[in-house]
Amino acid sequence: SGLSKNDATVVRVVERYLEESSKAAQASPGQLLIHYAPRIPAYMVSLGVCEDFRDIGQVVPSEKLKQTIVLDFAKQLKVLSDKVGFYRNLAPTGDSKRAAYALFDALRWAEDCVPENGQVWIFDPKVMNDRDDELFLALQDRVVRASSGRSAVVYFKPDSGPIFVSAR
User: Residue 95 falls within a domain, yes or no?
Assistant: First the structure.
């Protein structure tokens, strides 16, 4: 017949701690940095400017570029569209809401497009540090989680030549 106001309530607090490497189910897996990461390596990428291409990073072989997917925002990485295997602009006009909704669908698409040794280059939202709307900040959080916090700078000569990547 239920509890009355005068009944005592007993609460038992249980705390669980899991090692970060634990395979056990977790109460809030969305809090993990890698929760949204695709099964292929993903990096936050920005474009670098460099006149001297010596010692700035590793040359990306053309075969690897064919297995690279660029997920762009507001055309920041558009110059890479004809240099990689796949290119998708999440929000050409810079609409944070559209990009936030499209990111994970695009990551799943990326997993289907390239083999296990492929990679995803996602625009680095930190480059657009003048944006502070809530949806852009949510998008930034999702990009960081999808890339597991890994970032790189891409260098190349627009007219021709190899593409270099330097991890940050």
Answer: yes
